[in-house]
UniProtKB/TrEMBL annotation:
<dbReference type="GO" id="GO:0016747">
    <property type="term" value="F:acyltransferase activity, transferring groups other than amino-acyl groups"/>
</dbReference>
<protein>
    <submittedName>
        <fullName>Acyl-CoA N-acyltransferase</fullName>
    </submittedName>
</protein>
<dbReference type="Pfam" id="PF24553">
    <property type="entry name" value="Rv0428c_C"/>
</dbReference>
<dbReference type="InterPro" id="IPR056935">
    <property type="entry name" value="Rv0428c-like_C"/>
</dbReference>
<dbReference type="InterPro" id="IPR000182">
    <property type="entry name" value="GNAT_dom"/>
</dbReference>
<dbReference type="InterPro" id="IPR016181">
    <property type="entry name" value="Acyl_CoA_acyltransferase"/>
</dbReference>
<feature type="domain" description="N-acetyltransferase">
    <location>
        <begin position="123"/>
        <end position="259"/>
    </location>
</feature>
Length: 265
């Protein structure tokens, strides 16, 4: 099993790479709020050991539920190996919470530059510092969001504090894939990887990710991490070909009233 310190490092890096719009904290639990866009940014992630070992855990769950419901959001918890107390998942199950979207945290201990063949003339690749310079439009073309969620995504990306780069690949002017990376210390995190069906199995996303890795290495990154759904076999296979290995797994526990919603690992 991965060390708790490495898991914590990855978890904290992804807080920065996929920020919420508001936060609450309750004795080791990080409560994130982002107007309902994605479970990751609208869920409780127990990240640190409680300072009060005698705290009433059921009362903490009650408080978290109240905070989310007060904002018209369903209570959702992320269950990771860092969860404190260790029986939190069982406590949530007893309340009727169900498992949602099992995910894998993948880790690459040593980033390496990759030399790729040149693109056809019809294919172009763009990397920007600002997602509002075409990247958000490309993302929306590949995965259309309702207007409120599109606006929330833009605000979340504007809130990223560490250095980030937003990459998109086009063919004849049409977006085929997007992704972005964030560098915090020596760790590069990758997020929001989207690929058009006609771009698959052509090596285009691999080329885009390689370009982003080149930038990250120039910024001092030596390792990489990303999250992927357990059921997303195609993406998992691509990342494993790039050298990523599973570090740990986690899942969401959603309250009984949750019927649907957007899940981002």
């Amino acid at each position: 099993m991965a060390s708790p310190s490495l898991i914590r490092r990855v978890e904290e890096a992804f807080f920065g790479a996929w920020p919420a719009l508001a936060h609450g904290f309750d004795d080791g639990w990080v409560l994130r709020f982002a107007d309902g866009y994605t479970k990751r940014s609208n869920s409780v992630t127990p990240t640190y050991a409680a300072l009060d070992g005698d705290a009433d855990v059921e009362a903490k769950i009650d408080r978290a539920e109240a905070w989310y419901r007060a904002r018209s959001l369903p209570p959702v918890f992320r269950s990771t190996p860092l969860a404190d107390p260790s029986d939190l998942d069982e406590r949530l199950a007893a309340r009727g919470y169900t498992v949602w979207s099992p995910c894998r945290a993948l880790y690459l201990s040593s980033l390496t530059a990759e030399t790729l063949p040149p693109f056809p003339e019809s294919v172009s690749l763009r990397v920007d510092t600002n997602p509002r310079e075409g990247w958000l439009e490309a993302s929306q073309a590949l995965m259309p969001l309702i207007s409120s969620h599109e606006a929330t995504l833009g605000r979340m990306l504007d809130a990223i504090v560490p250095e980030a780069r937003f990459g998109a690949i086009y063919e004849d002017g049409q977006p085929l894939g997007v992704a972005f990376v964030v560098v915090q210390g020596t760790l590069m995190t990758t997020f929001h990887v989207l690929t058009a069906p006609k771009a698959r199995r052509r090596g285009l996303m691999r080329a885009l990710l390689a370009r982003l890795v080149d930038w990250a290495m120039d910024e001092g990154a030596t390792a990489g991490a990303l999250f992927v759904g357990v059921n997303n076999v195609a993406a998992g296979t691509l990342y494993e070909k790039l050298g990523y290995e599973e570090l740990y797994r986690y899942h969401y526990r959603v309250a009984p009233e949750v019927l649907g919603g957007s899940v981002v690992c």
